[in-house]
Amino acid sequence: MQSSSNSGASPLVIIGAGLLILYVAVSILLGDGNTMGSLFFYLLIFGGVFGMMAPKGAFYLFIFLCGYLDLLKRLMVVAGSVSVIDLYYVLGIAPVTVTGVLIGVVVRMFFGKMTTDRSDLFRFVTVVTVIGAGAALSFRGGGGMGGAMREVASSYFYVVLIFIVPVLFKTPEEVKRLITFTMLIFVPVALYGIFQQLNGFQNFEIDYLKTGMSIEIKQLYADRVRAFSTLNSPTSLAVVCSELASFAFLLAFVGRKNPQYGLSQIYGFALAVIYFGGLVASSVRVGFLLIPVAIVAFLLFRSARLTAGFYAVSILVFLTLVILSPFLLANIDAWTIALLDVVGDVPFWATMLDARTYKDRLMGFDNVLSNPAAYTLLGKSNADLSLEFYNHDPLSAALLNFGLLPLLFGLLIAFLAIRYLHLCIYRTQNPGVRGLSLVCLSIVAGSLSVSMIGGNLISTFPSNVFFMIPIGLVIALTKWDRLNQRIVPAKVTESQPVPKRVVFPMRPRWQQR
Hints:
Layout: H1 2-30, H2 35-53, H3 55-75, H4 84-110, H5 118-156, H6 161-168, H7 172-185, H8 187-199, H9 203-210, H10 234-255, H11 265-282, H12 286-300, H13 304-323, H14 325-343, H15 347-352, H16 359-369, H17 394-402, H18 404-426, H19 431-454, H20 463-487, H21 509-512
Helix pairs in contact: 1-2, 2-3, 2-4, 3-4, 3-7, 4-6, 5-6, 6-20, 8-11, 10-11, 10-12, 10-19, 12-19, 14-16, 16-17, 17-18, 18-19, 19-20
């Protein structure tokens, strides 16, 4: 009876799926407006449903979308005129997919389909609180409901990855598989960036820039090419390529002693060279700083004292830059002209050495961080951001928008979070897992350090995704090591065999001592 029932259900499912596909195809072909925009509307729905039904598979889809959504957005010009609603459809695919993954994970946790403990619940409450606070602050800033939703979708929402990643990827093998998949799926992104720098933009890309729906329209009025490949800006290309180049190089270093947790040297260095080529093609200088910072962090994070020294030096460099900002602003034009005289009329090197583009950051340091009038308890909602308080860095923007009290509270939370991640790594017993965790945390430290001096680099998609995922991976790896220590006793005897089934304790480790 049961076999007959199952055999009768399959044709119904196939017929239903076929009718649904037919409806979607007819709706797209016969509907008004941009046909690709209509297709992206259904892909948006598919991403959310797929995330709820198969969270892990949908997360891999999300990684792919991070690399190629902007290319899909540009391709809409081939299908006709592009409207703002079409733009919302394609840009909404990634956050809707992550929302579906989140719902799928929470439902499975609620019904006991997924193993969890109190730390997972604590992270869930934390990320929901952060997203809610971000939405409230954005609404208070005058953006209204629509502005707050856009700000959350592009900046705050991906904090949820800190909760999702450790729940979906629990073992070092799964973590390494995710990292390897990400590095391979983004190879065409780096290669296409190199192609753009050598050959210029294609016709459909120029047509899309002419629509005015991208900030990169400014490139049409400049006699140079700053490649942005399949991403939304040269800065995003530089940040992603520098992070993945650091990943590949450091994983090759880890693979020397722990091949199971790293990459072979040839494989890792080859990927690092490709991504470094994509970084060069972007002509964004701040990306070149991220790689050495991440490498230095990886070497120093093995010691608590050297770790403290790393953060102390980073803060000192930032404060020195703020103090010297008036002097640098007064001389940066002369220094740039001297450099350009050396390289001559080579456009690429002229772009790379043009330090005058850094004046926006220096003006923010001088106008806001060095200005006592900018320091208020709850922000300056009426600040003149075009002249007196002009800025282009995240710390200045946070000080003006939110005020000193919320900023100090946020810095305290960031300090406690970083301290927690370091403590988790120091307690890790497995050397391979510790090395892989250090790689992930080094990428986080490099991204954060560079963002503080180079502008708001980690709050825009997909750079924010590549900042949050490594944090989740550190939590997943250190949690696996901690649970593995509980499972396997120090000495195994015949009277004390290794338990085959483990019931994870619900109390945090510090409460069990």
